[in-house]
Please model this.
Amino acid sequence: MGKEELMRKLEEKIKNCRKCPLWELRTNAVPGSGSYDAKVMFVGEAPGYWEDQKGLPFVGRAGKVLDELLREIGLSRDEVYITNIVKCRPPENRDPTEEEIKACSPYLDRQIDIIRPKVIVPLGRHSMRYILEKFGFPVEPISKIHGETFEAHTLFGRIVIMPSYHPAAALYRPQIKEELRRDFKKLGELLKGFS
Ligand code: URA
Ligand code: SF4
Model:
């Protein structure tokens, strides 16, 4: 089976999933969007109000910030892949629980295995923690390690992990926005090495 078919099947499974209680409250599950051949994968936390309404990741205010950051380094949504650790919206946009992450993260693991990105950018500390732990790296405060690169070795080759802040954190904090800009600039440079 090719990537396309594997991803479509997985998306269907996510849309019908009832592995944790979040399914009961969702309007739409949000599997992810973008290219299945993406070199870079962005991993947010969980869908919010608009994501749940539309079934697409990062389409609310945080999404506008992400779009802007991508545009600044010449990337469009069609050439990257964007998803979250948890695929259904937690009530009141609370943080996902450990149980929800545990139930849902196998979907993210599978997306990584199918897409085989060269670079993973966890957005925010929850996503950062999941991804760093998954690949066996110690977790440190995001203020310390955002923009740093970690080289993971997988069955299908090397993956570079570069954590950054969650775009929502930039909404009222210009300093964070600047840090995000700097990290994305670095990402742009990094991706040139993979083209
Ligand atoms: N915040 C996230 O972490 N993910 C989304 O898809 C939207 C907002
Ligand atoms: Fe399934 Fe994940 Fe949705 Fe829970 S959050 S119901 S595990 S898709």
